[in-house]
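Late entry, written up from scratch paper. The run itself happened at the end of the previous shift, but nothing got recorded in the book at the time, so transcribing now.
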Amino acid sequence: MSGTLMLTYSWQQAMSFIAVAVVIGAAALLMAGTTEPMRLLGAIAGSAFVGWMGVHMLTSSTRLDAQGITVHAPVHPFKRNASIAWKDMAAAEIVPCGWYAQGLRLVSGTGADIVIPLNELRTPDALAIIARVAAHPSVRMHPDAKSLLAQAKQIGESRSAPKMRASLIPDRVASAVR
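Output as recorded:
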């Protein structure tokens, strides 16, 4: 398959998290004069967390191209950046990730792993990712590519609205942006 597949969150969704954080922060400022410090601390912590989620959505991306898969998440506390070349990829399987969510876990021969949250993708995008991974003979699919595609379809039918979007970028444009 040609072209680079980029997975990103929409900026509208990210900005809605940031707007909610601003509202919670404003409420915290209004509560600053109250005699209940725990309520104020809770509002400040909630504002910081929701704001962090918005910034995370604005800055994170996953890229599938001719070289392999790269995740860029500069504000994620645990996995900021990871990359697995196709020639190094050893296994792929669907695993639980988060609350009631499932993701495609990709593991390299050196032990690096990347989990792509399938619940956050449109069904055709999730199927396109699995098809790209299955196209590489060095990747051991568990249980097999056909079963993984069936699981991804089932995941797509069971979730609500997708959160991430996939964009196919032609190779000549992707190499210029690299």
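The two ends are 19 Å apart (CA to CA).
(Scratch paper discarded after transcription.)
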